[in-house]
Amino acid sequence: MNKFIAPVELSKAFRLINHGPTTLVSARHAGVDNVMSASWVCALDYSPPKLTVVLDKMAKTRELIEKTGQFVIQVPTVAQLKLTHYAGTHSLHDDPDKMAHADAMVFSIPGNDLPFIEGCSGWLACKVIPELHNQQSHDLFIAEITGAWADTRIFSEGHWKFEHADPAWRSLHYIAGGHFYATGEAMDIGGEEMP
Fold it and tell me: Rounded to an integer, what distance in angstroms lies between the CA atom of residue 37 and that of residue 26?
């Protein structure tokens, strides 16, 4: 595992996604790994930490998640723009070598049988909280965050460091039609810190 990857306190795990980045969702079942892009991921609760993600029924990643009840949410970087776009526009149903074609390299974090995607800035290991009505009617999955990690070159002590890092580390925000924005300029109003 990369020496810059460090655990994030679960009480601060939501900070990895609360700025609304496009994410990568990865899952594994029966020796098959897959990754897809997802823009509709949202922090839901602090204790225990939870999030929501929308996973379309046609997605192979959703099928893997439904079989195992586990997945990883990752925060890709500007340096992973092509990977993120490919993962969101190609399906494992049509491209059996999707992971290789997307240049999605997988690594492991001890204690987790999940595919973590290399090069991201943050990772959230998740366990599905079954809500079958929401899943079937709205493609909405609720999950508990069971582990969180970040690359300390861009996130440490519970905070993003975008303003001090190489711009290649900024997170992506998908708009439409292959158009993305990178996380922008930092602004600080000061005062008391929120959770």
Answer: 9
